[in-house]
């Protein structure tokens, strides 16, 4: 096996091992020796790739955010109208979080347990992304004129962020059937429209 390919495999194994340790024991209780043993690599191999546990922690976070950026780029380029595109984004995101321990651990890192780690501000990023998609789709005639795009973007952001949060306690919330069923209930006309204003109650 070429040296470069072996080095890439070793690095990925260390990221997975660190992520497993972080999710099981937390960052403070996860030692470098334990992480290297989980990866079946020497401590020297670990320090060849990562100078410290802080470097390894940042690498886990960056690996997770890199996976998210790919999904976000796919959403921005999606030909489907925003509600459908965001549903597909949610399915892809939550499925990846459920099956990829590096992504799951990276999104769970917090400053109080991993000093130097900043909150990823996913809500703000996704709100801006969804708003841009809704606005572009309406300008292109893919969505009918209707409610304030910011309101629609807030709804879609709340759905994605809420499911991400709920699944941390019960991972059935991340299942594809659960996500698509929720979208069908909230957007019963088929996910290509966004709910309009809520009517005022009759007096």
From TrEMBL:
Keyword DNA-binding: yes
Keyword Oxidoreductase: no
Matches recorded under Gene3D superfamilies: Tetracycline Repressor, domain 2
Superkingdom assignment: Bacteria
The entry's keywords: DNA-binding, Transcription, Transcription regulation
UniProt DNA-binding residue ranges: 31-50
An annotated Gene Ontology molecular function: transcription cis-regulatory region binding
InterPro entries: Homeodomain-like_sf, HTH-type_TetR-like_transc_reg, HTH_TetR, Tet_transcr_reg_TetR-rel_C_sf
Domain HTH tetR-type: 8-68
Record protein name field: TetR family transcriptional regulator
């Amino acid at each position: 096996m070429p040296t470069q390919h072996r080095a890439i495999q070793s690095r990925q194994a260390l990221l997975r091992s660190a992520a497993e340790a972080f999710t099981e024991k937390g960052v403070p209780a996860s030692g470098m020796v334990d992480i290297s043993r989980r990866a079946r690599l020497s401590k020297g191999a670990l320090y060849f790739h990562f100078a410290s546990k802080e470097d390894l922690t940042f690498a886990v976070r960056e690996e997770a955010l890199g996976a998210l950026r790919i999904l976000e780029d796919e959403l921005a380029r999606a030909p489907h109208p925003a509600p459908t595109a965001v549903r597909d984004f949610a399915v892809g995101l939550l499925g990846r979080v459920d099956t990829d321990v590096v992504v799951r651990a990276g999104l769970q890192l917090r400053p109080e347990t991993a000093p130097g780690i900043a909150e990823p501000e996913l809500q703000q990023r996704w709100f801006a992304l969804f708003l841009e998609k809704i606005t572009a789709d309406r300008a292109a005639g893919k969505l009918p004129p209707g409610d304030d795009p910011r309101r629609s973007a807030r709804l879609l952001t709340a759905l994605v962020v809420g499911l991400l949060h709920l699944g941390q306690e019960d991972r059935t919330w991340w299942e594809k059937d659960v996500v698509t069923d929720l979208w069908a209930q909230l957007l019963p006309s088929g996910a290509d429209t966004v709910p309009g204003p809520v009517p005022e109650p009759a007096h």
